[in-house]
FTR1 family protein
Amino acid sequence: MLINSVVLVLREILEAAILVTALMGLARIVGLGLTWFYAAAAASLVGVIGLAAVLGPVTDMLDGTGQEVIGAALQYGVYLLVLLVILDTRQRVCGRRHSRFTGWLMAAAVALAVTREGAEIQLYIGGFMSVVEYRQAVLLGSALGAGIGISAGILFYWTLVTRPRRWAYPLCLFCLCLLATGMIMQGTLLLEQAGWVQAGEPVWNSSGIVSEQSIAGELLYAVFGYEATPGPLLIALYGLGLALSLMASIYAIRSRAGGGDD
């Protein structure tokens, strides 16, 4: 139970931590600052509590698929917000790479990501609090997993912001492209579990290289949406999502004097 708790909480924390620190790194690189992060933290707290409260009724309303459907909606929402963030960090006439909307977009993306992962952790830990023989192992494992995930996020942040200035911005955008596109994979897999979509027969099987049930597979799923047996729908959506985010990044990187002084 201790190892299971470490892996589960690490998986959830790592996904949110990497995305959050990537956005924090981008904010620092474009000179935005971190004021928006305080609003994101407050919204995340409200979101976690609110989602945990409504998840039961929504699940009943959707015939037991509420958790998957809400999770997918949040994942798609994060992807869209990250795409907008990338576009909004294009260079403007005044020389800035941010507008008055950039911080709000970042805050919303963080709030959605943390809400989903935080609610998952809260439900997991809450489910074992009444089981005396598991309580200590679950709490200790959760604390270890959270510590490792947050530490990885901090390391990722400093890796981004300490790159040479000419490379820091493109590297940060590329990482956001991969992270956000992974959200599409995860969201689609959740809808497939709920029976809302059919991914089709697997195009390949990479379980022999990295199994989804292994620790590496779970962490790759958390960060990049790794799927060992993707169907045509998953591959198509991943390709489309990655292409859109990369095109947005190229537009933002190459921009010089477009977009005005907003």
The helical segments are 2-29, 35-61, 66-88, 102-128, 132-161, 165-194, 215-224, 232-254. The chain has one domain: 2-254. The mean pLDDT is 87. Residues 2-254 form one domain.
